[in-house]
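Because showing beats explaining, we let one protein speak, sequence and backbone structure tokens together, and leave readers to judge.
___
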Amino acid sequence: MIEQSGLAQRQAALESESADDKVARLVARAKREQQAGNFAAALDAVGDARQLVADDPRLEALRVQLVAQRRATQRRAERSGELEQHKSTAGSQQASGNFNAAMATVDSGLEVAPGDRDLLAMRASILAQQRAESEKTKIEEQVAGLTETALRMRAKRDYDGALAALEEAISLAPNKDGIVDLYSQIYGERRLALRERRRKTELGTLAEATDKRSQNAE
């Protein structure tokens, strides 16, 4: 009986509540929901209040604000999802060495969020990798050119010139085993050539000495 009496009293209080009081209560609820970010619930409360008071400027202004805030929240959520997609795609492209595509994806993401720190850091990282890759390609081209020069000189038996070209190539790419092996081969060929040259010189000197002894004997 006591519980029923309490319910009856609350129901009576609600029924006796003036329209202004109901509107104030609904507005207060709408603002609580607004602060909590529950814009749909806030708009429901405002809608209930507008049914009690038509064309109230304050309610209309609050409704417009809530709609704008809900749209902004939705856009942020969409932008966040789009941003994460850009980051994921750019990361995969960067990891696979497709730096141009990664840079394009990052720039596209920065159009969505110009100040995003993750994207800015990723852009700096990609630029550094692009520069390193460009330098690596440049060195590889120089090493290839020097190797070709060494082979041409080797063919002409200019072993000193060939070895000088390979020394420069090794200074650019000291860990490239193929160049070191080629240097070793040409160095060995140079040594054999020098031995052969010395042998011929010695034979020539010996022949001259023999000729002179023969002439003196006559």
The mean pLDDT is 85. The two ends are 160 Å apart (CA to CA). The chain has two domains: 1-114, 131-210.
